[in-house]
Amino acid sequence: MTAVFPFSQVDVFSDHTSFGNPLAVVADAERLEQTQMAQLSHWTNLSETCFLLHPTDEAADYRVRIFTPLQELPFAGHPTLGACHVWLAQGGQPQGDDVVQQCGAGLIHIRRDTGRLFFCAPPLRHSGPLETDLSARVAAALDLSPSDVEAAAWVDNGPGWAALLLKDRQTLLQAKPDYAALKGMRIGLVAPVGETGHGFDFEVRAFSAGGFEDPVTGSLNAGIAQWLLADGIADGNYIAAQGTLLGRKGRVHVHQDGGDIWVGGAVQDGITGTLTL
Q: Are the C-beta atoms of 96 and 180 separated by less than 8 Å?
């Protein structure tokens, strides 16, 4: 017997459709088994596919499960904003001022502000300096010299991210990943822009465990923000660009509010329809 589900594909972290990071969202997903979710995510072949479900925590407004083509994730940034956008577009009404999403990482608060959605960065599961030998191996796998790297840290809030702070934007854009040498690690690069006129403060790149560069990555930017702000490398508000070499114009907005860090951007509608399984 076939079943029909509301289906959306949205574009996250860009002011213009097709310049951010696409996300598939399947609503009313209670009828799907985990194996079906995994297979559908493999079929869409996007970096993530989300499934909207009824919450099991009364404090949450909705629940989401997040799948890559290879595995389920407890948390990811652009799926969080994209899923929230679809839930609101389908008539979702939050219980309070914030939208509260339930996912594998717990409860994630999401705010609406000037046409953008912002999630409150979840606590890091693994933080602190990246081990010296590991940092050197990662740098070599990206064709970087030790002098190119200013600092390196774990910035893992679920997916397993580690990040290198590079000396400048040009060095970041010239990095060349050897995915076999990275051996399935999720690695982020960040560098200050320095010169004015770009409209953003940092450039970011993300190399996934699946062997490709991710266009715009909310979870990585959230982890990087916690690192940069804690170490005084960035101030309380900045904009990061991502996806430049992929022909994208991702823009990630970071705001610090007291002890909380909010990470957000625009979400654009792309495809809206139904899915038959």
A: no
| ∠ CA 38-21-41, rounded to 5° | 10
Q: For the residues 93-115, what does the mean pLDDT come to? A: 96
CA dihedral 187, 177, 210, 77 (to 10 degrees): 40
In tens, the pLDDT along 217-230 reads 999 999 999 999 99
What is the C-alpha separation between 266 and 268, in angstroms, rounded? 7
Contacts of 264 (CB under 8 A, 6+ apart): 81, 111, 113, 116, 117, 118, 119, 252, 253, 255
In sequence order, what are the residues at sequence separation of 6 or more whose Cβ sits closer than 8 angstroms to the Cβ of residue 38?
Answer: 67, 72
Is residue 191 over pLDDT 70? Answer: yes
Comparing CA positions, the residue from 141, 219, 216 lying closest to residue 185 is 141
Main-chain phi, psi angles of 2, to 5 degrees: -85, 155
pTM above 0.90, yes or no: yes
The confidence score (pLDDT) of residue 195 equals: 74
- In terms of Cβ atoms closer than 10 Å to its own Cβ (0-12, 13-18, 19+), residue 169 is buried
Lookup result for tokens 């191996």: 137
Are 217 and 204 in contact by the 8 Å Cβ rule? The answer is: yes
Backbone angles phi, psi at 83, to 5 degrees: -65, -40
- The residue-averaged pLDDT of 153-176 equals 96
